[in-house]
Amino acid sequence: MPSGLVHRFAGVDGVISLAAGLPPAEAFPVTELTARTVDGQDVTLGSEGRQAYLAQQYNFNPKGYDPLLKWLRNLTVELHGVQVANAPAQGPVVVKKKEPGTAAGGPGGDTAAAVALTVAAAATPPPPPPPAEAEAVTASGAGGTGGATAAAPAGPTDAESAAVAVAVAVAATTQASPEAPVRDLVLTSGAIHAIFAIISCLTDPGDTIVVDEYTYTHALECVFLPRGLRLLPIRGDREGLDAEDLDRQLQLATAEAAAGRGACRRPRLLYTIPTGHNPTGAVMGEQRKRRILEVCEAHDLLILEDDAYYWLYYPYGGESGDNPGDVERGEAEAEAEVEKGELEGRGGSIALARGGIRVPGLEGLPPSLLHLDTCGRVIRVDTFSKLLGPGYRLGWITAPSPLAAKLANWVQASTVGPCSVTQVLVAKLLQQWGMDGFKAYVRKLQGLYASRAAMAHAAVSAHLGDLAEWQAPHAGMFMWIQIPGDLDEGALLDALVAAKVVVVPGSMFATRGLQATLGWAAAPTQPTQPQQHQQQQLEEGTRQESVETGPRGPCCLRLSFAGCPPEDFREGVVRLANVIRAALLSRGAQERG
Amino acid sequence: MDYSRFLSVEAKRFANASLAGLVHRFAGVDGVISLAAGLPPAEAFPVTELTARTVDGQDVTLGSEGRQAYLAQQYNFNPKGYDPLLKWLRNLTVELHGVQVANAPAQGPVVVKKKEPGTAAGGPGGDTAAAVALTVAAAATPPPPPPPAEAEAVTASGAGGTGGATAAAPAGPTDAESAAVAVAVAVAATTQASPEAPVRDLVLTSGAIHAIFAIISCLTDPGDTIVVDEYTYTHALECVFLPRGLRLLPIRGDREGLDAEDLDRQLQLATAEAAAGRGACRRPRLLYTIPTGHNPTGAVMGEQRKRRILEVCEAHDLLILEDDAYYWLYYPYGGESGDNPGDVERGEAEAEAEVEKGELEGRGGSIALARGGIRVPGLEGLPPSLLHLDTCGRVIRVDTFSKLLGPGYRLGWITAPSPLAAKLANWVQASTVGPCSVTQVLVAKLLQQWGMDGFKAYVRKLQGLYASRAAMAHAAVSAHLGDLAEWQAPHAGMFMWIQIPGDLDEGALLDALVAAKVVVVPGSMFATRGLQATLGWAAAPTQPTQPQQHQQQQLEEGTRQESVETGPRGPCCLRLSFAGCPPEDFREGVVRLANVIRAALLSRGAQERG
């Protein structure tokens, strides 16, 4: 339905629309949809507020289903302390005051861990929220079903006018505070859809994107390279992206662009994963984030902050779990504590489980790049995939309002918008939980991942202690194992196949020496040899390592401890240890022989 | 056919994800432990059971059985879609379109639907034509009974119940990955089976638009020319074709939609221009059209027209994007019996009663006939698709659940020659990982629970509903616009296309419609003549164009623009949707519309005289 046409009828009563190509409610097969939650609640979409209808109908607000959008806007105000279009006006921005060490989550290694624990204990609790903000949260979270009904458009005509109303309100709010960057949200079909949208809107083929030296494979293989982007890899350390290397590489790239060498245009976009980095697991500290923002400001870059693992932050998880027995007790206690429902208020200090596992909750999440960004350079990607489940296919973008409008156009063009069924269902679930229920759920989730991480850390310590190097995980799903000794990754992989354990080799995440086979200016050349594992027939462009790059450094492996039962993980690590030991022995024998 | 000449640069850059390749190395090995996948554990999911209550009072439940609640909340790693749903749709495709589908049970001789051309066309509008259509329809040959292999395929998918679903559902992350690999291997095996006939495969998408976006991304480069109807689907035009930087080659239409002879003529001209180095750099390679219940014109393409279009596309080496979103909403006899609104309402009630009675004729039976006002074709009487008629592998078909179950499920699917399907699956996986798992698993369960008979009954009921709305709309338009406009009686889809003679100014008409509080969509919003993307592929970003009155966003650089060199647009056209609006509102809307048109014509006449 052309939005402009509807706009002309905005605010007019008694309009009859013969415009929209919407199926009538009578054409839908489902009258009621009920989700039973783990805690035994029933979340039902029925005739109330026409929610079953809305779940099966088009949603015409290009930014998402209004009640869900509203909930997320309020959450964004609370979590990131930024001004959000269409969210209740905010008082002074709540800056989360934290010691730098806390935000970093205590980067790995046993000594660092001990330090992190000490620092954490001394962390200043965040100030109590100003009234305006508290009200915003109440309106969204604790409002229950009444609020949902009021916010839900009542039918096609209303849905269209609601979209118009949103647009008008956005315009009004945007004017309110001309200095601070105003953000808005756009719901997407998951984080990948968000990244695809951002790359489509902010890069042209042949452009250069700045990336970590190891990064998320899907973004790399399925988005950046097919787009025809050049990659500018930046060194990483235990806190992720190295800000000084970023500065150095950008200076070089700018000089090259000015001299007409290298890439034609200077880089304009950085992609990074600050919390529980995929694949390295690194957690970026607040000082590091501030420095990266400075560098990007100096070089006029936008930042794509992919924070898919933001919620899965457990800075104290790994340390307390060196003894696997402790860990399992920790998980049980964490769950018991959550079920007890004794949650501290928003202004309280970081929650502490009585047993093994401490979790930061919503209040203890690290300050995001978005939060620290005063210039409007950060485009943040969040997802429900690791929060509720990937199958809901829901994520969201938080971007400066003018960019959000453009991104919403792209999202609407590509899919009309994310699944209405899950948008309406998740909105209802969140409203029914209320903010307290949501906080409890996040804490439980952090407890679960913290216990898995502790288990993984313990297993790796027990079996790979003398063979590899790693950091204790503090966020996300992954451990990054570095094996010294110049092993051949291909041979190691063959041995892993024989030993029946699947881990992902580091080269799959490596960005150094990668180039899209078909550049933007390059004519389609000789089809490359299809790689051994590729099935389809139309292969022309694939990942290729260019020959001029040097050695890759130590052999790295990514271990996921999220989806695999603890006993399987331990057995997998035992097999891995055997394979590595054999490879190192054989390598030693070769060198001697 | 070698499809590489049709692929975009972007599509050529796509490869299978290397992670999938890694998993492939472990395929068929027992006792593998995977520390590879970044999947949340089942304990991290909030929902243990999801139940949908259907209009007929059935409960469709995703629970622990077959781990369906888990699968609904987890990633689905088969880039073509959730296996049980994919299997169901593959079997449906074999039955409905009679084509060979990868991974669907091997088929005997292809069931060619024998129909009189007139029947397939659904009797294009006008009262005389309608009467003819009725006669032809009565004489239509019933399709032959299905061969055993096909019947078995349908039973296996539709009537198998939950047992089959459980068996097919992957049991966990590792299994899901191996299942994806197994599918790929099986596809390769099946593809080899019959090297001559084009083998198709399916790819599930987040609705038809996602499918169209994927196809355009994989098969066009900026600056390419796409062949389109002179009026076409606005979203595809404004949100996909123009932002892609495509040039448009509009083809004249008539009551059967795209004019095959004009297509031939325009393609000859374009080819000659490309050869002479004038006009578009590359000759057109893709046709986009909507054969059933065309948006906006409502036209239904007859079988002969489809055959001729296929011939022309073969001669000019074009692929065809068959957007058949309204395929299910086909009611060739709906409009005719409903000239009296009283009849229509009785017809709707009776159609529903008949469906609820559950007395459905078998697949081999003749077209179903409601005892009262409304006859519906059912699944068996759907027109032969371009896909069905395509023997060369030139058709890429887009279907959607949006008009079948509901747009909110955000599920559609592509049927394409297998090599293209693999590429399109890559693109879909790259853009969203895949469509929503919750709705894929739910819809698969719903369809399995319904069984093929239940599905057929649902389609008939849906056709009855739309047929009655169409009849009501046709009656209202006849009563109030009879002396003011021209139109065809609708035989499919959601729309009536009203042409107003008398050279009215569309902008002034629209202003009057705003004042009269009735929203209809002006024809210019669908027009492809004279449209050009403002930013061409080779054009440097020029002066930002003036944002049009109705556009809200701030970063406008490229928008629709009419180039000055084009001539007048022809008669003023309006699209009326009768789908989503209650019948009494529709009638009132048409009354208001009639008043506006009458006033405009009077004022126009006064101007001419004055």
Automatic annotation (TrEMBL), chain A:
Residues 174-511 form the Aminotransferase class I/classII large domain. Residues 122-155, 523-549 are annotated as: Disordered. The keyword Transferase applies. Pfam families: Aminotran_1_2. Keywords: Aminotransferase, Pyridoxal phosphate, Transferase. InterPro entries: Aminotransferase_I/II_large, Class-I_PLP-dep_aminotransf, PyrdxlP-dep_Trfase, PyrdxlP-dep_Trfase_major. It comes from Volvox africanus. Transmembrane segments: none annotated. Its cofactor is pyridoxal 5'-phosphate. One of its GO terms (molecular function) is pyridoxal phosphate binding. Gene3D superfamilies: Type I PLP-dependent aspartate aminotransferase-like (Major domain). This is Aminotransferase class I/classII large domain-containing protein.
UniProtKB/TrEMBL annotation, chain B:
The keyword Transferase applies. Residues 139-172, 540-566 are annotated as: Disordered. Residues 191-528 form the Aminotransferase class I/classII large domain. Pfam families: Aminotran_1_2 (PF00155). InterPro entries: Aminotransferase_I/II_large (IPR004839), Class-I_PLP-dep_aminotransf (IPR050859), PyrdxlP-dep_Trfase (IPR015424), PyrdxlP-dep_Trfase_major (IPR015421). GO terms for molecular function: pyridoxal phosphate binding; transaminase activity. Residues 540-554 have a biased composition (Low complexity). It comes from the Eukaryota. Keywords: Aminotransferase, Pyridoxal phosphate, Transferase. Its cofactor is pyridoxal 5'-phosphate. SUPFAM superfamilies: PLP-dependent transferases. GO terms for biological process: alpha-amino acid metabolic process. PANTHER family: AMINOTRANSFERASE (PTHR42790), KYNURENINE_ALPHA-AMINOADIPATE AMINOTRANSFERASE, MITOCHONDRIAL (PTHR42790:SF19). This is Aminotransferase class I/classII large domain-containing protein. It comes from Volvox africanus.
